[in-house]
Amino acid sequence: MTDTPSRDYSETLNLPKTDFPMRAGLPKNEPKILAKWLDKDLYKVMRDQSAGRPKFILHDGPPYANGNIHIGHALNKTLKDIINRSMQMQGFDANYVPGWDCHGLPIEWKIEEQYRKKGKNKDAVPINEFRKECREFADKWIDVQREEFKRLGIEGDWDNPYLTMRYDSEAVIANELMKFATSGQLYRGSKPVMWSIVEKTALAEAEVEYEDHTSHTIWVTFPVVSGNEALIGKKVVIWTTTPWTIPANRAISFSKDISYGIFKVTEAAEDNWAKVGEEFIIADKLAESVFEASRVDAYERVSDVDVSTIEYCAHPLRGAEGAGDYFDFNVPMLAGDHVTDDAGTGFVHTAPGHGQEDFQMFLDNREAFAKAGTEQVPMTVQPDGSYYPHVPLFEGKYILDRKGKEGSTNKAVIEKLVEVGGLMARGRVKHSYPHSWRSKAPLIFRNTPQWFVYMDKELSEEAKGDTLRSRALKAISETRFVPATGQNRLNAMIEARPDWVLSRQRAWGVPITVFVNKETGEVLKDDAVNARIFEAFQNEGADAWFEEGATQRFLGEGYKADDFEKVDDILDVWFDSGSTHAFCMERREDLSPKRKGLGGDDYVLYLEGTDQHRGWFHSSLLESCGTRGHAPYDAVLTHGFTMAEDGRKMSKSLGNTIAPQDVIKQYGADILRLWVGSVDYAEDQRIGPEIIKTNVDAYRKLRNTLRFMLGSLGHYEGEEVALADMEELELLMLHRLAELDVLVRDAYMAFDSKRVFSTLFNFMTVELSAFYFDIRKDALYCDAPSSKKRKASLYVIEQLFRHLTMWLAPILPFTMEESWGYRYGEATTSVHLQQFPAVSSAWRNDELAAKWEKVRAVRRVITGALEIERREKRIGSSLEAHPTVFVSDADLMGALNGLDMAEIAITSQLNLSADGAPEGAFVLEDVAGVGVVPGLAEGNKCARSWKILPEVGTDGEYPELTLRDANAMRELDSAAV
Q1: What is the H or E stretch that residue 314 is in?
Q2: What is the pTM of this model?
């Protein structure tokens, strides 16, 4: 035989045939696919197609319309889209309506920033003019964000999103508030709330972040003035990190479980604040640290002390020059469960207007406070952070300035305490402290009149214990949480939360639409008034509330405007978003779910970041439970936050931010979506250049597998093959599809896209590319057109392609749409209009799968041996090998019976022996009873399939080919005539 073939047999091979490009070109190709979806109105077709199905509503938690989207937005919206698409393809009507939060500080703050740059005074601008600017600002960013979300491939009703600032939305939000007012759940009260001096408003817990902050610390003495006569003149010591609250002190709290003592200073410097001979009452455990801070050289413990025998102390500023009689009230000693001896002095300085526990002490001991001269919680600090004029010594002094920097109050209080002999020690401490998440300025607790909703007021006379808190806790117990830990987190928050603060002292939002009778202080409850407000807001928006003459307009002829106060406070923005179920889900005909347990089969999911346990999940739960008696959702899913590659928080100053727009521009949206679909979203995720590259590599492998299938199917003519006509390898692949069908459906129903992607990726790269396709390439390329093996393989590849593209379509919508179009034609229907294919029960064959586990174990030993031969350059490809495989394990040998192991191992020849492996044979420790002795294939190399067999040269018509290839050529040449 000659080395040069007489014919170019490569032209006779059925090599992959497809125009599906190896290089994706996603940044250029994806916009074309988006244009195709828009042209075909894919969203409407999906709605028409799914009419009448059970509804799956992933109700959108609204982002703020105040800037470009960031990587957290991309994760959130993509995760929602994956879930929606998967539910749509599993038989639901998964109608996604995106929304935006348009009111509140994020936008108002932006307009104020613009004003400050121009030297413009917000208070000099008519309120509705200011609100108009806020509305225009929100409109602008809604359009920007909408396009950015659409570029991610998020499918939804982008032409008709819900907006909290739409007139009909504002009308419903106001109406929801009026329901609370009408039912008696709304009240105006005075209590300390988190207050931003910079922004001049109360903040919700969800608007607060905790950062390290360095504070003053002071140890202050309160002389005993009544009670146990033996203790009069001795001084109780308190410790605080907020010196500015000392003028608001009205009590001292102690613990019945702490041991206290009287301690006498015996040695100290002459100029020390703690003088020799002075006696102080301190918790025994903390005395040493107190005297160390006070720079006392020596002290002695005089005796035990029962602090409950102390009736009153005097305020340290009593009798101070210029204070008049302001501080002449008594300071009662009160037992409190919140007092510990972990730090400080064992006593807690109690200022009811500036702390939640302090305020609770006032509520629990109102009579004792009144007896001591404090009948109401004192109002000491104004909205701008300065002391009211009625507070002597400190009037007009600021706690923080307009930029959030420390004002003069702390210094003034400390200096005054030194002057009157009330300071024992001072220092500095670095600790976690609440800050505004917008202005980044420190916050204070400030007693202010606000509007609240009762958490524990009985809502019905019939059912005892029916409170907003009890309803919310019951609803939580009936809700599915993913991950399950979210249930305990939200439950703990509801159990411990105080009454719900609704009011904010701002301008941009829905007002608290109530009137208060000036004489009685009662909220007006009149359905006709409420109806006028609702109708006006529907037609004109909430601006109508601030128009001249609004009071009389809404009160109507039955009331006089002079008799009522129109409340101009703005609703907390979380009430807005907490009402989205009312003005979006319930009022849209294409949503309006009939949920399980409420008369239907529809399902509602809320999905946001873990911070929303105290935000949107929380406010939506309270709003719905307060007005409807149940949660607005069936399930709550939370995801973690996105961190930089090294695990640090993303920060512009660190230069470690990843903008989704940049990733899309360089790699395409499907790369970003692959990252979302493959991470464990329940935990904090990481992203960075190296992680993106890893995802790009994974995408290439997946795309190459798709390309091979499309290329192979270029020769498929649609012929179905009966299971009885298939070889075991094809039956095994169908079995794997049957297994995967269960896993994929279960994982998507569990909202676990990571399990879907990782399983399918491994299947495609390991079981298909590196196993099934590798084995079947010979039959696909070289077998005759009439080959049953080849036809069966093509049929199976068609099934693999259909199933895999549909299963992956929710995660990689662009790539799966592209590959679907190459397979079935651009003009055909979209992959996203398909349902996950039904899998025949006949495909499931566990017995066959168990057998092939053994076959693959033996194959692994063979390929391991051949890899060494290739590495040592004794062979070039596995087709040059003729190994002898020793299988002494009868169970494994039985699994090989009837199989062409040379084909399975991709060798030209292979011998099987039931003998034990000789010494020196290649073995793997985890596959006992199998050994391989490599050898070289004998015979001539086929010019077509490259197999080396003795039979090459025995066919007279095609002497350069194996008999299989010769028969294939006869069939091909005959057909060509």
Answers
A1: strand 310-314
A2: 0.86
Return the number of other C-beta atoms located less than 10 Å from residue 27's C-beta. Answer: 15
Bridge-partner residues for 511, per DSSP? 570
d(CA 791, CA 718): 9
Residue 216 pLDDT: 85
Using the structure block, give the residue that is written with the tokens 């719905």. 624
Q: Which residues of the chain have pLDDT under 70?
A: 1-3, 206, 431, 463
CA torsion sign, 800 to 803 to 807 to 808? positive
Burial bucket for residue 528 (CB in 10 Å: 0-12, 13-18, 19+): exposed
Q: What is the DSSP string of 263-292?
A: EEEEEE-TT-SS-TT-EEEEEGGGHHHHHH
C-alpha 546: how far from its chain's center? 37
Token pair for 341: 């001896």
**Ramachandran quadrant class, 191 (left: phi over 0; alpha: psi -120 to 50; beta: rest):** beta
Cα Rg, the chain, nearest whole Å: 38
Which helix H or strand E contains 569, and what residues bound it? none
Tokens of 9: 């047999």
Rounded alpha-carbon distances, angstroms, from residue 467 to 185, 222, 631: 10, 41, 14
Going by C-alpha positions, the residue among 476, 489, 811 that lies closest to residue 672 is 811
Residues ≥6 apart with Cβ < 8 Å to 922:
861, 864, 865, 868, 931, 932, 933, 934
Hey, what are 897's tokens? 């019976």
Name the token pair of 211.
Answer: 């950062």
Strands 330-335 and 251-254: what pairing? parallel
Instruction: Tell which residue, 782, 823, 772, has the closest CA to residue 802.
Output: 823
Contact between 225 and 312 (Cβ < 8 Å): yes
Contacts of 643 (CB under 8 A, 6+ apart): 649, 650, 684, 685, 686, 687
Residue 419 CB neighbours (<10 A)? 12
Give the SS3 label for residue 593.
coil
**CA-based nearest residue to 129, from 420, 547, 417:** 547
Residue 266 and residue 319 in contact, taking contact as beta carbons nearer than 8 Å? no
Alpha helix locations (H) across 276-431? 287-293, 356-364, 366-372, 409-420
Strands (E), 356-485: 423-436, 444-453, 480-482
- Main-chain dihedrals φ then ψ at residue 130, nearest 5 degrees: -65, -45
Q: Return d(Cα 66, Cα 102) in angstroms, integer.
A: 8
The identity of residue 385, as a single letter, is G
Q: Which letter, b or e, does each residue of 593-612 get, where b requires 16 or more Cβ atoms within 10 Å of its Cβ?
A: bebeeeeeebbbbbbbbbbb
Task: Please report which helix (H) or strand (E) contains residue 187, including its range.
Answer: strand 186-196
pLDDT in tens, 673-695: 999 999 999 999 999 999 999 99
Contact 192, 464 (CB under 8 A): no
Cis peptide before 483 (omega within 30 of 0): yes
Task: Specify the amino acid at residue 535.
Answer: E
Tokens of 149: 């979300």
The tokens for 405 are: 């920097």
Q: What is the pLDDT of residue 196?
A: 80
- Measured at the alpha carbon of residue 499, what is the angle toward residues 494 and 504, in degrees to the nearest 5? 115
What is the side-by-side strand order in the sheet with 911-913?
911-913, 884-887, 930-933
What DSSP character marks residue 655?
T
Please give the structure tokens belonging to residue 82.
């994956």
Measure the CA–CA gap between 409 and 404, rounded to whole angstroms: 13
Evaluate whether 251 touches 350 at the Cβ level (below 8 Å): yes
Q: What is the pLDDT of residue 3?
A: 59
The per-residue pLDDT for 899 is 96
Name 564's bridge partners.
517
CA angle 292, 295, 298 (to 5 degrees): 80
Question: Which residues are CB-contacts of 698 (< 8 A; sequence separation ≥ 6)?
Answer: 674, 678, 761
Question: CA angle, corner 213, sides to 197 and 273, nearest 5?
Answer: 100
